[in-house]
Amino acid sequence: MEQNQNRSIGPKFFQLWPTQFMSFNLPGNEQANHILSELVLEKNANLENMTVEYISNNIFNLDHPGIKWLKQCCDRAVLDYAKKIGINYNLEWTLQGWANVNMRGDYHNLHNHPHSWLSGTYYVSVPDQAEADVFRSDLNPCAISFFDPRPQANMNSIRNDGQVDPEFRILPNNGDIFLWPAFLHHLVHPNMSDKPRISISFNVILKWKDEYIANAE
Fold first, then answer.
1. Of 22, 159, 186, 206, whose CB count within 10 A is highest?
2. What H or E segment, with its residue span, contains residue 186?
3. pLDDT in tens, 67-83
4. C-alpha separations of 94 from 67, 79, 85, 133, 182 in Å
5. CB atoms within 10 A of CB 106
6. What's the pLDDT band for 41 if we cut at 50, 70, 90?
7. Residue spans per domain, the chain
8. Does residue 148 contact residue 154 with C-beta atoms inside 8 Å?
């Protein structure tokens, strides 16, 4: 997009190519998390590949009160996200979701989510890591890290320049929902607690319409 430059006194600054990340702690999550935790742990015990077979086992297809509540919350989050970035037309999407149970030592490798518009995670239970047996100072138990999608953008980085900070790391709380562009690479650090880390991740799959095509300018 080309920006017209008008003559004025002093410099103008533009924040180019932003990557929007959304975080929200869902009201009423305490009661919902209890029943969601029971559901996910039961599924984890009965499904060998619960996480990787997320297409055939879309958790949002379940007729379950906790899942219905969560689906409504996820749909609301997508609307809020779209409004914040300036989308002023109707979007149609489906949610494709799966549960994750990370036992002690479990983690998720660096990855992104192809064929999706947005990705997100809802945190059912994030165990306290304060008393975990952390034997290395560079461990970040139960945190999730997101990485700058611009290749080699940090090659000339200098201290305190946030434009080229290669990593954004955050430790979620119970009841948090995160939402981000699906192209963003991320990883989940190991759970170092004896209690499971439970989350429900999802992709936002747009139902294609020609209206989505940007006008050539």
1. 186
2. strand 186-188
3. 999 999 999 999 999 99
4. 14, 13, 20, 41, 14
5. 14
6. very high
7. 22-209
8. yes
Q: State which amino acid sits at residue 209.
A: K
Residue 4, amino acid: N
What region, left, alpha or beta, does residue 107 occupy, with left being phi > 0 and alpha being psi -120 to 50 degrees?
beta
* Token pair in block for residue 16: 């180019």
Q: pTM for the complete prediction?
A: 0.90
CA distances 87 to 90, 204, 212, Å, are: 8, 15, 10
Could you identify the residue written with the tokens 């999802």? Answer: 202
Sheet with 144-147, strands from edge to edge, namely 108-111, 186-188, 144-147, 167-170
Q: What are the distances in angstroms from CA 83 to CA 16, 34, 210? A: 19, 31, 19
Output Rg (C-alpha) for the chain, integer angstroms.
20
